[in-house]
Amino acid sequence: MADGSRPLPHSSPLFSNLSYVHPSPTSPWGTYLAQVDRVVPYIGELARWAETLRRPKRTLIVDVPLELDNGDIAHFEGFRVQHSLSRGPGKGGVRYHPDVTLEEVMALAAWMTVKNAAVNLPYGGAKGGIRVDPKMLSRKELERITRRYTSEIGVIIGPQQDIPAPDVNTNPQIMAWMMDTYSMNVGATATGVVTGKPLNLGGSLGRVKATGHGVFVTGREAMRRLKIPLEGARVSIQGFGNVGAPAAELFARSGAKIVAVQDHGGTLYNPGGFDVNALTAHVEQFGTVAGFTGGEAIGSEDFWSVQTDVLIPAALEGQITEARAARLTAKLVLEAANGPTVPVADDILAERGIVVLPDVICNSGGVIVSYFEWVQDFSSFFWSEEEVNQRLDKIITGALGHIWDTAERHKISLRTGAFVVACGRILTARAERGLYP
Ligand code: NAD
Question: Among 25, 131, 231, 358, which has the minimal tally of Cβ within 10 Å of its Cβ?
């Protein structure tokens, strides 16, 4: 299913037309543009509208001033990008990380547009972030920066406009502060303005583990189709947070062995398989896998060449580089993170017969249950966890089957297959709505 012969973004005549970003072929926005270039030959007359995919509808940059506990005033850059609103309100997470940039948020917003359309949710795509290391802030500082950021982006978010959610380094408590701030500003409790909230404030059962659950369900289905037995399968995971830890737990519970884990603090290897519950307890206590004694510490680059059947990147984008793609031993890559594979690495993996289940379907469990949360908030009627998981499994496996069939029909990668399905929906909506005026 290789389609690596498609041009890379810098060969597009319209590339770098936006004055405010300067992407490279391996940066997040450059990666996204290459993915769009690859889909255009398969979307027929809708290609007329394809340029709308290469331009975010709206980008907002805000200054977030913060009074530190010691009385100093610090300033941080905040972003909210609404990539597309053609199919419904914006939807996508908020990331707190010292490396956040406008370009990264643009790419993450665009991938949300594609993801929401790939699984047919009635949303456009958006994303936000603050360029901050939250580990340097006290809890009170974290609350103040969250509230100021929410007020600053309050001009474009709302239950019908754009609905943030957790992403890297954000969590239900931060969503509660965002919901409260927005509600104070509009003068009414607006639970539907964010998802991923605590249960007590209109959150949904099943949301916390939904992304990891979806990674497991789509991974199990891909393994079935590729005839990779789940029982005894070796699985390595980069990132042991909101997404990686629940995915590891579900794979281990189903008989797979988690043989390697890596996070920001260290890399561990255990060919016999980790005790995932003990590892999770260690990470809850110390904030990192480093120091866990149930495995051997190895060098961070060695992570990419350990003997494994399934690799799950569940940390940050751009991790599977050209050099690492050449060394992977896995038969299947489950993209739990957003944008973990750069385009040139995609081509190498395709040549090597390694199947990549793309982020836009693999990690869509989180936004699917966020959608359920939003629906439940509107109706003020809440579902059981079993109901949530059943509906999630139905939507995600149905979408995966449709994408798999599309990829086989066109003899293209699963990623381009997912983009064909998604961009068809996005651009049909765009064409049907027409341009205003
Ligand atoms: P998180 O903050 O809970 O966890 C991130 C993990 O990555 C941590 O274990 C951290 O130590 C690790 N990490 C950070 N930098 C690293 C580095 N340089 N090398 C190795 N490991 C590193 O974040 P999360 O919510 O689990 O998100 C992880 C990925 O999944 C992101 O790409 C995010 O966009 C994506 N995602 C998250 C959700 C969600 O519901 N949270 C949904 C869809 C996609």
Answer: 231
| β partners of residue 125 | 84
167 CA distance to ligand 1 centroid (A)? 7
Q: Using a 6 Å cutoff on CB, does residue 211 contact ligand 1?
A: yes
Ligand 1 pocket test target in 167, 171, 321 with most atoms within 8 Å of CB:
167
For residue 221, give its domain range.
Answer: 210-362
- Let me know if 115 is a catalytic residue: no
Residues 116-171 have pLDDT tens digits of 999 999 999 999 999 999 999 999 999 999 999 999 999 999 999 999 999 999 99
What is the pTM (predicted TM-score) of this model?
A: 0.94
The residue to mutate among 104, 163, 168, 169, having the most atoms of ligand 1 within 8 angstroms of its beta carbon, is 168
**Same domain membership, residue 338 and residue 219:** yes
Nearest by Cα to 295 from 244, 265, 258, 247: 258
- Same-domain pairing of 64 and 178: yes
d(C-alpha 241, C-alpha 174), whole Å: 16
Q: Are residues 243 and 290 in the same domain?
A: yes
The amino acid at 190: A
